[in-house]
Please model this.
Amino acid sequence: MKMDTTVADLLHLVGWKAVSSVEYPEKRTIEIHLERDENFPCLCHRCGDRLRAKRGIYRSKVRHLPIFGFEVWLIFWRQKRHCPICNKARSEQVPFLADESPHLTTEYVFWAAKIMEISTPTRVAELVNLDEVTAWRIEYRHLKKLKRDYKIPQPKRIAVDEVYARKKNLYRGESRKEKFFTIIVDIDRKKVLWVSEGRKKEALDEFFKIIGPSGCAEIKSVATDEFDEFRQSIEEYCPKAKHVYDKFHFLRNFGDAVNDARNFLFKTAVPGTVARRKSAPKYKYNFIKRAENRTEEESQDLKDVMESNKMFCTLELIKERVLTMFDVGISVEEAKRIFNEVGKWIFEAGFPSLKKWYRRTSRIWSKIENYFTERVTSAISEGINNVIKSLKRRAYGYKDMEYFKLKIMQVAGYLKSRFFPNGKFDLLDGSKLIPISEG
Model:
């Protein structure tokens, strides 16, 4: 069957034209036979120089985009000629062949890569009848191409957190800090901006170096946990930014101290008493909860414990007072007053774990009180960390850490085709973009 002359244009086959096609309904395939344009230059597929004397030809069968559920194969004869630069026989350059495989077209590879943005290479390979290794190679190269054109959107407020990346050592003597990823998230856009290897100062330094001094100057606030090396990096590169110790980590540390105090009272309680029975470890969450969140049964249990041992009453008062620090409308001055008041109660009661918590928190209070002016937390980072853990479980772990980082930036960041109109990264909202090569 003769083909219409517009088919070559529809297929975007530069330097080639369609001459015929054969349909195989029982196999659900279509074969399109191509012929090379005589005026198209014959170039080396390695160095790009013009090829000279002929060395032979061979038949190529290349997979193209499917049509109406039919697999489409392009069939043509490819020349081999002598290359004066390589000084050997080389195959001619075919513009529509993909770098990932000489048996796939660039359009097919791009289409498959877009599907892999919402599924795994294994599932896509099964869907489109593709080899799993080839599917993985397609996605990996696609992600690296997107990263090459990626520009970091200028952030105003960022959250920094770490996530456990792997268990096995990549080299002998590797420290545990090296097995983490440092995740930098734009709080306003709720997207991952960058992923660095390791949980150390250098990991955050890498991001600040990329965005440069002008980018660092635009950052108004940074939310982190109490990891000291992050503090050092922020003070070095973003001295004008407000460093906020995250309230969720603050409350988690406080909850651990309350639980240790509960455990201390449980161990010192008289065996057989209500205080001993209902302050056991299985009741620990009842002592950490806010009073308004307890069920009637839980409230009654706690009431019985406090009537049996007045120290539990003091522990409950301290816990409830600390939680009021983060109520809506609390100012820096009010928060400081509550904190000082709680400190007096703690030292009067003599709870060892709470005294230790209070001393440690006092040393970093300046970072905690920034929360009451900036109102930023790393909550979005904690949510993204759950996404990353799900991603790792779905893949049963990653051996290639660079690929894992790119997948994180794809699933939770900007390495998706929709952010690359015309092949270049653009948010289409006038955002200032910082090329990653600046660092």
About this structure: The chain has a mean pLDDT of 90.
